[in-house]
Specification:
The structure holds 2 protein chains of 2 kinds. Chain A is mainly alpha-helical. Chain A contains 15 helices and no strands. Chain A has a single domain, classed as MetI-like fold, CATH 1.10.3720.10. Chain A starts with 9 loop residues before the first helix and ends with a helix. Chain B has one domain: MetI-like fold, CATH 1.10.3720.10. Chain B is mainly alpha-helical. The chains are: A mainly alpha, B mainly alpha. At the A-B interface, α1, α2, α5, α6 and α7 of A face α1, α3, α4, α5 and α6 of B.
Chain lengths: 299, 271
């Protein structure tokens, strides 16, 4: 028995029943979560609806929902919007900015470090809906950007949220999420030994070379971890965009999460909505595999 | 990088400028919140008052604050209690299939909550749980993989020799857990609780779908419903409401800042 290994810990082996009972609620809830995931897959093959006759008398429709993903307008456009949003706000914006800040502030214990940390953390700690409200107000026709920059320069006020919806939500998400990448890279750079960096300096490496050729390869696992997390989060991120634009104007900012909500709960197509969520799960799963491979590859 | 003072001063100025841009949206928020006659424009208030805040803690707005507190504290406490009860055996016993279970948790943690939204809604509707209690249970279910993994990691760092010593002295399992394991992982448990609390406090999508009446909204849905309304937008009220809504998460973070940064790093690097 594998339990033999626990012979040395009699307070555990004599209380196996109690410990087992303690695990029960968690196992039950995890089981429910697994069950729901399986359910989402099953729903995606039905025409289940939120209200009306089909909310009770639903039927199996085979792969029809998945065919609709590719034949009707909506899914592919949303997928493209999501890719653009993830690429510019998470990978380019949060990751690069977070890394630059971490590299610049590395090893310093100055006031400026505290100030920058507190400032970017404020964005991160703010509830999503408050951030959405703040950015709607900041970019509105009477908001901060118009009244401080555009109008004093003699231009007519710009309705940013309407005319540049995707860039505005992208910037709002960079503003909100950079702190995470910064903290992770900051911790990673602290683990790079000072001697290695000093040695490179003695050998005549410039600041840029020290970052690009010495530090980056060492913290590669952290970069992969960071990419994994922020890509998945941003890919499925819902509240900020939904509260700022609702996916509009038109479908300009309709990412997959917003598309899923609109189809499932505004239109009431729960079956089709489940197909969208299955597609999202598959995409997230594939992305995770790619990043986990990156994580495991030798330096 | 410290070698060149001119270069580092330039960097400092650039960083300070960036920090200024980063916090500038807040200027608008505070100007409007403390101006009883706020119009949503960026302007110095004619008079300063707390009328907006008084409005934002009375009536439905006040009830929404309590709803948020209930949901966030309920979710955090429930996930931590359920998590501790399972994480300790997981950390100490060599249960067959433990690794497979832990990997399942890692995968479930990456699962986007949007993926199980439809079944969650359906189950809650059938079970009559389209209310705050349902939100607490749903959020706990979604939060548990994360809580469990993190608590197990914290328990792993408690040296088992201490427990052996306590057992030799005649301590029971309950005493060992409550007197040694929990106090020694206090900081970790606090971080997990705080994470779960802010996560549930911020949560928007689930309560949006689960709450049917305005009195049952948490603050996230309340704020969304208020600024989504077309027509006369009460900017002063919304700004004050936002500040009250944002205050607990921001406040607790800065109280526990030192612990938190370590915790964040741990969350990320341990995967």
């Amino acid at each position: 028995m594998s339990l033999m290994k626990n012979q040395a810990n009699p307070w555990l082996t004599s209380n196996l029943l109690v410990l087992g009972l303690g695990m029960l609620p968690a196992l039950l809830l995890i089981g429910v979560l697994l069950y729901f995931t399986a359910w989402a897959f099953a729903f995606s093959f039905t025409d289940l609806a939120l209200v009306g006759r089909k909310s009770v008398e639903w039927s199996w429709v085979g792969l029809q929902n998945f065919e609709r993903l590719f034949t009707r307008r909506g899914f592919l456009e949303s997928l493209w919007t999501t890719v653009i949003f993830v690429f510019f706000s998470a990978i380019v914006g949060q990751s690069v900015l977070g890394f630059l800040l971490a590299a610049l502030l590395r090893g310093t214990q100055s006031t400026i470090k505290t100030v920058v940390e507190v400032c970017i953390m404020l964005g991160w700690l703010l509830p999503d809906i408050v951030a959405a409200f703040l950015w709607s107000a900041t970019t509105s026709q009477t908001g901060l950007i118009n009244s401080l920059i555009i109008v004093p320069l003699g231009f007519p006020p710009v309705n940013f949220i309407n005319d540049y919806a995707l860039p505005v939500v992208t910037i709002a998400n960079i503003w909100k999420g950079t702190a995470w990448s910064y903290l992770l890279f900051s911790a990673a750079l602290d683990s790079v030994s000072r001697e290695v960096v000093e040695a490179a300096k003695v050998d005549g490496a410039t600041a840029f070379q020290r970052i690009w050729l010495v530090m980056l390869p060492i913290i590669r696992p952290h970069i992969a971890t960071n990419m994994l997390f922020i890509t998945i989060w941003t890919f499925t991120y819902f509240p900020l965009i939904f509260a700022m634009t609702g996916g509009g104007p038109g479908t300009q900012t309709q990412t997959l999460a917003v598309f899923l909500y609109n189809q499932s709960f505004s239109r009431g197509n729960l079956g089709f909505g489940s197909a969208i969520s299955v597609a999202m799960l598959v995409i997230v799963g594939l992305l995770s595999l790619v990043y986990l491979r990156m994580l495991r590859e030798p330096k | 990088m410290e070698a060149n003072p001119a270069h580092s001063r330039l960097t400092a100025i650039a960083l300070a400028f960036m920090a200024l841009i980063w916090v500038s949206p807040f200027s608008w928020l505070f100007l409007n919140a403390f101006d009883p006659a706020a119009t949503g424009r960026l302007a110095i208030p004619q008079s300063v008052g707390l009328d907006n805040f008084a409005q934002a803690i009375s009536g439905n707005a006040g009830r929404q604050f309590l709803n948020s507190m209930l949901i966030a504290a309920g979710t955090a406490t429930l996930s931590v209690v359920v998590g501790i009860a399972a994480a300790y055996p997981l950390s100490r016993l060599k249960i067959p299939g433990r690794n497979a279970f832990l990997w399942t948790l890692v995968l479930l943690r990456m699962l986007p909550s949007a993926g199980v939204l439809v079944p969650l809604y359906f189950a809650a509707q059938r079970g009559g749980l389209l209310n705050q209690f349902g939100v607490i249970i749903a959020l706990t279910i979604l939060n548990l993989p994360f809580t469990l993994l993190l608590l197990k990691n914290f328990f792993d760092t408690v040296p088992i020799e201490l427990e052996e010593a306590a057992y030799v002295e005649g301590a029971s399992l309950f005493q060992i857990v409550t007197r040694i394991v929990l106090p020694m992982s206090r900081a970790g448990i606090a971080v997990v609780w705080f994470f779960s609390f802010t996560g549930a406090w911020n949560e928007f999508l689930l309560p949006l779908i689960f709450s049917r009446v305005e009195a049952g909204f948490p603050m996230s849905v309340g704020l969304y419903a208020a600024f989504g309304q077309q027509g006369s937008v009460q900017y002063g009220f919304l700004a004050a409401y936002s500040i009250i809504y944002a205050a607990p998460a921001v406040g607790v973070y800065f109280l526990l800042r030192r612990n938190m940064n370590t915790g964040f790093a741990g969350v990320g690097v341990k995967g």
